[in-house]
């Protein structure tokens, strides 16, 4: 079977050996040096000033939204545009934290929200939380510019797009902040884990407070002194003083160790996935049963799964059956139009009717694009993509 996830880590055997050694030697397993090290190295690799390591991509989203609320950059009741084609825990934090989600439809050619879709809803929204779907993005520089012009807080859910680039810039570097997932099967695995990146110092400090209990213990000395002075807290009571709304989204040293270990393979993993994507994309382009994507504006696309959109329901059933019969694992293209999901229908009455996202849900599927795919598996997949 060609499964979506082939291994828990890149270079799995060696990584497991090193992990076993680390566990035998380590004295502290709660968040400490390994995590701090990973944050520093990840920020550098992503070309961001700050990185905050958390327990998952989902908690990264939750902590980020809460931190923006704590800072007053967003307010309860604000309308926030988000990609209708996304993952549940992209939009759930908006709903959980009292914001009003406004679904934005995707462009069929990029699977992502385009500047023109945002322009249509611009007067209605205060914030924009876009998902960079499966290693791709639309014209994200234009989107950033629209947001700046309209004073809209723009943040990126980059959980599916580590390493992809537009105009020489990594995805995840266009918004005020961006989130990443290190769940097994994503580009870089720490078993469970996530990251929030930003260049904004105030937001960084609030993220540190919001990640763990609302206390100041993880702030730098200057920021710590400042907050203690403002609140008239001495060093004794500072241990248990909680300044703002928060969670416990702490990662462990095991996750930190794995992050540091896997980071050395970033370039290799990203470029192999990009090479596979290019190859699959060229085969897809030769078959007129499929809707072609247009991603000519992107420098590099690295994803963990390859989306296929068929022209109609009958055709998609043919290919789905073909893939399953040949032992290739397939899944829907993430959560489809999130407006059609039971949790969304339960809480949100107003729908925006995202026809393209519906189309993708009904006529699409994805299969694995992991760096361990071998020649035989790649040839099997290429054969299945023929008309
Ligand atoms: C777009 C997006 N956001 C958030 C998440 C959540 O990440 P995690 O599984 O690490 O919680 C995912 C997970 O696949 C995702 O695809």
TrEMBL record:
The UniProt keyword set, sorted, is: Membrane, Pyridoxal phosphate, Transmembrane, Transmembrane helix
**GO BP:** polysaccharide biosynthetic process
Q: Which SUPFAM superfamilies match?
A: PLP-dependent transferases
Give the Gene Ontology MF terms in alphabetical order.
Answer: pyridoxal phosphate binding; transaminase activity
Query: What transmembrane ranges does the database entry give?
Result: 50-69
Q: Which domain of life is it from?
A: Bacteria
InterPro entries to which the protein is assigned, alphabetical? DegT/StrS_aminotransferase, PyrdxlP-dep_Trfase, PyrdxlP-dep_Trfase_major, PyrdxlP-dep_Trfase_small
The entry sums up its family as follows: Belongs to the DegT/DnrJ/EryC1 family.
Provide the protein name.
DegT/DnrJ/EryC1/StrS aminotransferase
């Amino acid at each position: 079977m060609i499964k979506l996830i082939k291994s828990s880590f890149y270079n799995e055997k060696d990584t497991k050996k090193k992990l076993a050694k680390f566990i035998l030697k380590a004295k502290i397993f709660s968040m400490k040096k390994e995590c701090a090290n990973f944050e520093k190295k990840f920020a550098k690799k992503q070309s961001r000033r700050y990185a905050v390591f958390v327990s998952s991509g989902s908690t990264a989203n939750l902590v980020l939204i809460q931190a923006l609320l704590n800072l007053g950059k967003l307010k309860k009741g604000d309308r926030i545009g988000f990609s209708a084609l996304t993952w549940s825990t992209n939009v759930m934090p908006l709903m959980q934290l009292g914001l009003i989600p406004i679904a934005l439809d995707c462009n069929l050619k990029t699977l992502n929200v385009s500047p023109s879709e945002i322009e249509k809803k611009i007067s209605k929204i205060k914030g924009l939380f876009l998902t960079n779907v499966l290693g791709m993005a639309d014209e994200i520089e234009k989107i950033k510019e629209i947001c700046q012009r309209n004073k809209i807080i723009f943040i990126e859910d980059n959980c599916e797009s580590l390493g992809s680039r537009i105009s020489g810039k990594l995805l995840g570097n266009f918004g005020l902040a961006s989130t990443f997932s290190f769940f097994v099967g994503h580009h870089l695995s720490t078993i469970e884990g996530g990251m929030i990146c930003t260049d904004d110092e105030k937001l960084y400090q609030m993220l540190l407070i919001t990640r763990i209990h609302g206390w100041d213990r993880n702030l730098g000395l200057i920021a710590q002194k400042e907050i203690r002075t403002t609140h008239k807290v001495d060093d004794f009571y500072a241990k248990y003083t909680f300044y703002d709304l928060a969670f416990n989204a702490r990662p462990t040293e095991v996750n930190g160790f794995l992050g540091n270990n896997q980071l050395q393979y970033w370039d290799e993993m990203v470029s192999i996935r990009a090479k596979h994507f290019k190859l699959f994309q060229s085969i897809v382009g030769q078959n007129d049963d499929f809707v072609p994507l247009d991603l000519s504006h992107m420098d590099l696309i690295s994803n963990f799964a390859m989306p296929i959109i068929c022209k109609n329901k009958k055709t998609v059933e043919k290919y789905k059956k073909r893939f399953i019969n040949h032992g290739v694992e397939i899944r829907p293209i993430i959560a489809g139009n999130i407006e059609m999901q039971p949790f969304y229908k339960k809480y949100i009455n107003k729908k925006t009717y995202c026809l393209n996202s519906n189309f993708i849900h009904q006529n699409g599927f994805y299969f694995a694009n992991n760096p361990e795919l071998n020649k035989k598996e790649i040839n099997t997949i290429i054969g299945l993509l023929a008309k």
